[in-house]
Amino acid sequence: MTALERIYSDSRKAPLRVAFLNEPAQDETLGLAYVAAYIRQEHPELTLAFFDPSQEPVSAVGDFSPHLVLFSVVSFDVGRYLQCNKRLKKELSPYIAVFGGPHPTYFPDMIQQEGVDIICRGEGELPMNHLLTALKAGNDIASIKGLWVKLDGEVSRNPAADLIVDLDTLPLPDRELIYKKAPVRAKDPKKHLMGARGCPFICSYCHNSSAIELHPGGKSWRSRSPAKVVEEAEILIKQYHAGYLTFNEDIFAGVKIPWLQEFSERYSRLGVPYYANIRGEYVTAGLASMLKKSGCSAVGLAFESGSESYRAKYLFRKLSNEKLIEATRLLRQEGISTVSPVMLGLPFTTLEDDFNTLDFVCKANPTHSNTLIFQPYPGLPLTRQCVEAGILEDVSPNVVEFNNFFKPPDLAGIDYPQVTRLNDSFALLRFLKQTFALEPRRVFRFLPHGPVTRWLNIFFRYLAFMHVFRFRRTISQRIGEIMTALGSDVYGLNRKKKTPEW
Ligand code: B12
Ligand code: SF4
User: Which of 340 and 495 is assigned the larger pLDDT?
Assistant: First the structure.
């Protein structure tokens, strides 16, 4: 019996069972929570359950005997979930495996992988609703917008579903589903939410450039109304004891000033600090003060590189160094902390360029600047440019081997051993320069490369991190936070994730 035959037959007798599979190690997975809430709203009779493969045995899912298993995956860990799915496919009664989230959105050919039946590109609410309606009615599922469907080895590649224009029509994400199985997330005083979706920019190293291609002419950036956002924030504070909120959207404030004005008035009454991402070009004295009044305590203000010309030419981020310094200053003046990530080992750069970035960070002086070594994701404009220039082998967008996206990058011309050393000592070098005026290049020459330097660097990253996220939590919550961060590379440990037992 195929999964489809089982579903068509069972759905006549009893409601279908839908399993959501994810490891909410660091944050609650909002994508799945949104999809779950929408399914609950449109198909209230269905039974939904969440499983965490790192905490539960395969038999737990087996006992539930799902008709559909839903996975939300980023490229970073797609290999792990494909492996989970293969194991489940061997042990469970036939079911339909649906993969959604950033990886299938940008690399839809993952549908060719063994065990994958359906992939969802982009927003999952409407396609999943249509899929379940069709399954319940025993109808054909091959031509649902937003989904690529593999039936008897044949793939139907359907166009993207329309973007949800009015985000207020969506129910609030079903966090309860996740919290029941991940009490550590429920107890975490730091909660995440989305005030908007999409991004109006097209940075060359970021998937939003291809997200725009998915919906040509569509308005990518959409916000919820301030009233709805604050309503959700209130629930997080009252029901889930949130003491700090993080807005996960790519661009928070500034895209619409009247939005921020209304939000500011409503949110300021809650008295809970929050974090959000903004772009330097939006920061004015007025915006910084409005953010402060609303309760904003920290913002993500990406620098990416210390070179203005490099940013404009290669990253498609046309913003002067002066503006970034000014934005950081205006925010600091209001008492708002800034987190300014930078990428090291960027294509067509040298180690000296990375030191220049460090100099720029010292000059602009954000509260925290985390570093990452540039990873060329297949298909993105900057990756294509590397391939054309002959400094990178063409990588098929379909490569989804385990940990493929986390293996060291291999751009010709980049001195990775030295870039890794700099990555492992960036926060320490910054501290030494800003506190004792020690020249980073000189210190770097004498700095031993090994665990002592790495752990010292982690210590300074931790100090900066704590300075950004100032809110009340217990000692055990702090320890939990550190352990999670160490295990998830927040402190730059670059530890490989273990494949789950499944
Ligand atoms: C918050 C965040 C994080 C958090 C939490 C990640 C998480 N797993 O939730 C943290 C800090 C841990 C993180 C880490 C990383 N992140 Co991150 N992160 C984000 C961010 C800013 C928001 C995610 C979010 O909450 N979205 C809101 C929900 C509603 O959107 P969504 O997840 O896309 O879900 C919708 C659809 O995709 C779909 N959907 C999702 N799941 C499913 C499942 C099914 C079955 C269906 C049908 C549909 C469906 O429906 C949802 C509702 O419409 C996104 C950017 C973005 N704007 O999404 C980057 C993003 C996901 N991160 C990214 C990256 C690269 C990383 C890191 C690898 C960075 C690094 N080098 O360390 C790590 C990976 C660690 C990991 N294992 O997840 C990339 C992923 C690219 C890719 N190819 O996969 C993104 C897209 C940023 C970008 N534009 O490049 N990240
Ligand atoms: S501003 Fe941020 S989210 Fe938007 S395209 Fe650039 S890197 Fe991506």
Answer: 340
Percent share of the chain, pLDDT over 90? 73
pLDDT confidence band for 377 (50 / 70 / 90)? confident
> 361: part of which helix (H) or strand (E)?
helix 351-364
State which H helix or E strand residue 494 sits in: none
Residue 186 near residue 237 (C-beta atoms within 8 A):
no
Nearest to 247 by CA among 232, 268, 266: 232
Cβ–ligand 1 distance for 76 under 6 Å, the answer: yes
Q: Is the pLDDT of residue 436 over 80?
A: yes
Query: What is the C-alpha to C-alpha distance for residues 493 and 372, in angstroms, rounded to an integer?
Result: 11
In the chain, count H helices and then E strands.
Answer: 21, 16
Instruction: Report the nearest atom of ligand 1 relative to the CA of 29.
Output: 9
Question: Helical H runs in 216-300?
Answer: 226-238, 257-267, 285-294
Separation CA 230–CA 243 (nearest Å) = 14
Q: Is the CB of 167 under 6 A from ligand 1?
A: no
pLDDT for res 478: 79
Of 250, 243, 242, which Cα lies nearest the Cα of 221? 250
Domains (range + CATH), the chain? 3-157 (3.40.50.280), 190-301 (3.30.750.210), 334-469 (no CATH)
> Is 242's C-beta closer than 6 angstroms to any atom of ligand 1?
no
Question: Which token pair is 116?
Answer: 């994958």
* Nearest of 275, 274, 277 to residue 253 by alpha carbon: 277
211 close to ligand 2 (CB < 6 Angstrom): no
Q: What is the average pLDDT score of the chain?
A: 90
Average pLDDT of span 377-402: 79
Ligand 1 center to residue 306 CA distance, Å? 26
